[in-house]
């Protein structure tokens, strides 16, 4: 049986990097996106990238699982927050010259290709 490839570690500095990776890759998101200092646009852009790469599997490691759950709940239930997230997705698509896809269907929340890994502090 072939050995599974090691996960790709993504620092999120290059938001477009995941679009260059092979389908099926496991991607470990390096920053804890739910540290109290991280907010807003950066987190939205990371989630937009993950939503636009449904054939990759992302692992989020966090010491703050409640913050993750709250983020997902707010995006799923608050129309204004959801629309702010969609702006981030449109920005990513624009950088990829795929503007025409910005009005396409939206993903279900929580994203099916994102797994939360609790990392106790």
Give the overall silhouette.
globular
**Main sheet record:** 4 strands, parallel
Structural class, by secondary structure, is: alpha/beta
Instruction: Report the average pLDDT across residues.
Output: 90
Label this structure with key terms:
15% strand, 4-stranded parallel sheet, alpha/beta, 3 helices, 121 residues
Structural overview:
The N and C termini lie far apart (36 Å). This protein has helices at residues 40-52, 65-77, 79-95; strands at residues 8-10, 26-29, 57-62, 114-118. The mean pLDDT is 90. It is built from 3 helices and 4 strands. It has one domain (8-116). The protein has 121 residues and is α/β, with parallel strands linked by helices. Strand 2 (26-29), helix 1 (40-52) and strand 3 form a beta-alpha-beta unit. It has a 4-stranded parallel β-sheet with strand order 1-2-3-4, with no helix packed on it.
Write the layout of secondary structure elements.
Elements (H helix, E strand, L loop, with lengths): L7 E3 L15 E4 L10 H13 L4 E6 L2 H13 L1 H17 L18 E5 L3
Parallel strand pairs: 1-2, 2-3, 3-4
Helix pairs in contact: 1-3, 2-3
